[in-house]
Amino acid sequence: EKANQSISTTGRTRLKQELLNIADLSGDQKLFASLLESEIKSRPADIRTICRRCELAVEQNDLAALQNWSSTLATQGAVGQAWSQYYEALRLYLEAKGNPGKLQIAIAACDRLAAIKPSWGRGLVLRGMIEQSLGNLKPASDAYERAIDSGIADTAVYERLIAVLERQHEYANAEKYLSRLESWLPFSQRLT
Fold first, then answer.
1. Separation of alpha carbons 78 and 61, rounded Å
2. Which residues of 146-176 are buried (b: 16+ CB within 10 A; e: fewer)?
3. How confident is the model at residue 145 (pLDDT cuts 50, 70, 90)?
């Protein structure tokens, strides 16, 4: 406590963030959750930390916690509302477990998210995943392509897009994205 008082506010914030990172990297999800929740209590408007808590809920497949923390985000202005819509759509997708009726509800949540942030890469990837789960290959590939065009540089998204394009027999388009992916992958990854 005495040491804590001698550290500046900026230093204290950095120290707390480092503790969060260490707990996250250690794999101790219970400690990580506890530290995140403590940080949220001390800084309730910190959207980044609330989002980290949502991500942990996803990792733990704790959909009730995800719904709770998503609701917390909804109270944090326009940015928080966008994140809340994203996590709500993600929760509905995870909850659906392939059930077409429930996946349609997740699509509706994606539509609400798109009304707020139409070109948001994360939302587009989620839309693509849901459409792909429904077997709607063209809407899935369109969503993945828009996500990549928005700046998403995630190999998993490229892989999903390429797989969907190949299932649609769009081999030239799939090759285009495969070339783009290979151009920024480290050489060692290209060999595997």
1. 26
2. bbbebebeeeebbebbbbbbeeeebeebbee
3. very high
**Are residues 53 and 34 in contact, defined by beta-carbon separation less than 8 angstroms?**
no
DSSP 120: -
Higher pLDDT, 153 or 62: 62
DSSP state, 117?
-
Residues comprising the chain, all counted: 192
Q: For residue 68, what are the CA distances in angstroms to 26, 54, 72? A: 25, 9, 7
Tell me: pLDDT of 74 over 80.
Answer: yes
Measured N-to-C along each axis, helices 47-59 and 63-74 cross at an angle, to the nearest 10 degrees, of 160
How confident is the model over 26-61, as pLDDT tens digits? 888 898 899 899 989 988 999 999 999 999 999 999
191 has a pLDDT exceeding 70: no
Nearest to 116 by CA among 87, 86, 94: 86
**46: nearest Cα among 88, 17, 86, 87:** 17
Q: For the chain, what percentages of helix, strand and coil (3-state, to nearest 5) are there?
A: 80, 0, 20
Across residues 115-136, what is the average pLDDT? 96
